[in-house]
């Protein structure tokens, strides 16, 4: 997990995270916090183990740390956050010691985390974990949320 910690400690990553924190300080809906990133990582890893997928845990955690990191660009200039997150990941991952092949796997997970259709393997599990990481049944803003009823987690489930 040394390389995952390189991502976390990278100056640019921390700058992006700070921008998200400031921009979402008054957000009534789910925020994009390190807690969310870690929930996505842990759920994805559990799902991958259950299905016997052969993927390095560090790649899952790297993707989870980076999947929403471009959110600030969506607020600032309208760039979809998955697109912005891919751009940031492509910059940071080589600087943190990831190979081209590893970067491609991580970037693919990030790029597909908002696309339910035509996913398989780790991308399907990553999408599922991203959605299941939200506890909509606890959210005071659930009724105003624009997520569809099928995406909302209104009961405790696994």
Topology, element by element:
Elements: H1 2-9, H2 11-23, H3 34-51, H4 57-66, H5 71-77, H6 81-95, H7 100-111, H8 121-132
Helix pairs in contact: 1-4, 3-4, 3-8, 4-7, 5-6, 6-7
Key terms:
158 residues; mainly alpha; 60% helix
Give a verbal description of the structure:
- The chain is mainly α and about 160 residues long.
- It contains eight helices and no strands.
Query: Helix/strand-derived class?
Result: mainly alpha
Per DSSP, the total helix count is: 8
Radius of gyration: 15 Å
| Inertia-based shape | globular
Mean pLDDT level: 90
H-E string = HHHHHHHH
The description of the largest β-sheet is:
none
Task: Report a brief summary of the structure.
With 158 residues, this protein is an all-alpha fold. The chain contains eight helices and no strands.
